[in-house]
Amino acid sequence: MTMLRFGTAQEVFDALPTLHDDLQAPPTGDSPQVYLRTLGASDTPEDGIAFCAYVLGRRETVWWACQCVRMLVTAPEIADSALKAAEAWVQEPDEERRMTALTLGIAGDRRLPTTWLALAAGWSGGNIARPGQGVVLAAPHYTAKAVRVAILSSLASVPARERGDRLRRCLDGGLRLMQGPAEG
């Protein structure tokens, strides 16, 4: 589904310096896939969520986050309109769907991971200002930060005994996206 834009983890940090704020591990010259595996096996595997959110393209990142949140959250909000708007934007990333997601994200409850998914889609590019308030362009890191919040806040609702396995499943999904489509 994706072609990675970066050859090394260091290139991701260089292109998106706010990544330094979102994870503890220092960058390396390893490939993004090797770096993600290393993060997943570290004392802070949650760092892998942040790295994956930054390394994937915005559309892939939102799709991956929607899948993770669906796996992590079993509460009724999983079927809410914010999640559906984020998924609709992934399916057809046009301006109308982006603005729908942005509107729902802005109006949503920031305690819900699905609100952050809508914001991630809404902040994927273009003008993010409210109508009539001029033009404010989305910064390159906004989608990644929103995805990180969505997934980590979802993970917090998972029973402690299941967190490691669920986190690993999220990271495995991100790794599959990083590796691209299977040959054959």
What is the gist of this entry?
By secondary structure, the protein is mainly α. It has helices spanning 9-15, 19-22, 32-40, 47-55, 58-72, 81-91, 95-107, 113-122, 142-155, 160-179.
- What class do helices, strands and sheet pairing give? mainly alpha
Q: What share of the residues lie within helices?
A: 55-70%
**How many strands appear in the DSSP assignment?**
0
Nearest-angstrom radius of gyration?
A: 16 Å
User: What's the SSE pattern?
Assistant: HHHHHHHHHH
Return the average pLDDT rounded to an integer: 93
- Give the terminus-to-terminus CA distance: 14 Å
Oligomer: single chain
Question: What amount of the residues lies in strands?
Answer: under 5%
Approximate shape: globular
Write the layout of secondary structure elements.
Elements: H1 9-15, H2 19-22, H3 32-40, H4 47-55, H5 58-72, H6 81-91, H7 95-107, H8 113-122, H9 142-155, H10 160-179
Describe the structure.
The protein contains ten helices and no strands. The model has no long low-confidence stretch (mean pLDDT 93). Helix 4 (47-55) runs parallel beside helix 10 and helix 8 runs antiparallel to helix 9. It is an all-alpha fold. It has helices spanning 9-15, 19-22, 32-40, 47-55, 58-72, 81-91, 95-107, 113-122, 142-155, 160-179. The protein has one domain. The two termini are 14 Å apart.
